[in-house]
Write a structure and sequence with these properties.
The complex is a heterodimer of chains A (197) and B (222). Chain A has four helices and eleven strands, in the order ααββββββαββαβββ. By secondary structure, chain A is of the alpha+beta class. Chain B is built from three helices and twelve strands; from the N terminus they run H-H-E-E-E-E-E-H-E-E-E-E-E-E-E. The radius of gyration of chain B is 17 Å and the shape is globular. The chains are: A alpha+beta (197), B alpha+beta (222).
Chain lengths: 197, 222
């Protein structure tokens, strides 16, 4: 798996809140959009204390995403109508990063489509297990991805359709935990949010 | 071209993008009234155990580029470092001991390259550790800039300008007296015995030119 694919994947894994609970509640209104704030903690053996990042994301089906870091490095990833753009703040301005390929986005949107209908096991990239009602574990199938990520742990919230946290493990002492708050579901989001800085 | 080679090339391009300033020559050192230059030059380098987290900016000549988070831990002359994406993925992690024993703990393509690792650790040594040269002169360059000049046994010269634009600058010259690297600190803050820049810019000249911009996110005395 190419590195940009993985980076996009990490972003889009956060969209599992949309799907995580559709597996257990057929009578529940389908989730078509999610917005939330997040706090990201990066833990690493050499770090004296975790690196804290903050941001927001918005997702609207079938494939529109705005994934924005506010601190410490402002950046925005936009997916909309098959187009992907990324902006990173440099010298005080958000500048476009053209290093991400369309193929990566298409691959990950395919994954999201599966998650949206709760097909965790029908996945070419991850195996899925449910050790308890509060945990979903994704493990990479391929060696290349397994060399980067050992597993992903999803923690559902009590509120249907919402995740409390996603933890991406690289190794036993290296992981990234994203905790969500202020989640809003099924509010219509204007397209402009997915196309502009 | 294999994808990982292409990516490595991209990174090298990222590292070679911008800093195309004219390669300078070693300036003449003129005598100056005795001053406490050695301690002021020493204050350029952090002493003891520190951890720095920087936002690192690589920019290519066409304006494209990427942002990373860099972690540097110092324990005397031992250095540990990590490069992390904004999204939290660890791309590279390594340690370099005082006796130059390099241990790469994690390296994700295109960073899984020994040359890259050695170059990165060398840059960190240049940024955070004082020169090992024992032969030191002091004086002025260009008539006004106070300088500590370190000359090692191979003829490499390191000029430390402890007071430049309210921060400091380090210039490294090859044995042929041409400028090889320049590090400029800005927005310095006094922290303990050291002066920690809020912003660092490293320019590498010669055949392998690149520019690194590092904005301090935090500095922890451990």
């Amino acid at each position: 798996m190419r590195l940009p694919t993985l980076l996009i994947g990490i972003c889009l894994i956060i969209l599992i809140p949309v799907s995580g609970f559709s597996t257990t509640s057929r009578d529940q209104e389908p989730v078509h959009s999610v917005q939330a704030d997040f706090v990201q903690e990066k833990h690493l053996q050499i770090l004296n204390r975790p690196i804290i990042s903050t941001g927001t994301f918005a997702f609207q089906g079938p494939g529109s995403l705005r994934w924005e870091y506010l601190t410490p490095i402002p950046s925005i990833l936009l997916l909309h109508n098959g187009n992907i753009r990324k902006f990173v703040k440099k010298d005080g301005n958000l500048r476009e990063d053209r290093g991400i390929g369309l193929d990566a986005m298409q691959l990950m949107l395919g994954e999201i489509s599966n998650w949206l209908v709760g097909r965790f096991t029908d996945n070419d990239i991850f195996t899925t297990s449910f050790p308890d009602k509060q945990t979903i574990i994704l493990k990479p199938r391929g060696k290349s991805l397994a060399g980067l990520i050992s597993k992903i742990e999803l923690k559902p919230s009590e509120q249907k359709g919402v995740l409390d946290s996603v933890t991406i493990f690289e190794g036993s002492d290296s992981y990234t935990r994203m905790t969500f708050s202020n989640t809003v579901i099924n509010k219509n989001i204007p397209d402009a949010l997915f196309t502009g800085k | 071209m294999k994808p990982h080679i292409l990516l490595l090339s991209t990174i090298l391009l990222l590292l070679t993008g911008c800093a195309l300033e004219r390669q300078g020559l070693l300036p003449e050192l003129t005598p100056a009234a005795e001053m406490n230059k050695k301690s002021r030059c020493a204050a350029v380098f952090p002493v003891g155990k520190w951890q720095f987290v920087h936002a690192i900016d690589f920019t290519m000549g066409n304006g494209a580029g990427t942002g990373l988070i860099g972690v540097t831990s110092l324990n005397g002359n031992d250095i540990e470092c990590a490069l992390i994406t904004v999204e939290g993925l660890t791309l590279f992690e390594a340690a370099l001991s005082e006796d130059n024993d390099l241990k790469i703990r994690r390296s994700v393509p295109p960073f899984d390259n020994l040359r890259f690792a050695e170059g990165l650790m060398h840059d960190l040594q240049t940024l955070f550790l004082p020169p090992s040269a024992k032969h030191v002169k002091s004086g002025l360059t260009h008539g006004t800039n106070e300088v500590c000049r370190y000359i090692d046994s191979n003829g490499k010269v390191t000029d430390i300008l402890p007071e430049l634009d309210n921060c400091w600058q380090i210039n490294i010259y090859n044995s042929n007296m041409t400028l090889n690297r320049s590090i400029t600190g800005r927005s310095c803050k006094d922290q303990g015995a050291g002066r920690i820049p809020g912003y660092l810019e490293l320019n590498s000249y010669g055949t392998n030119r690149y520019k690194l911009k590092m904005t301090l996110i935090r500095a922890d005395k451990i």
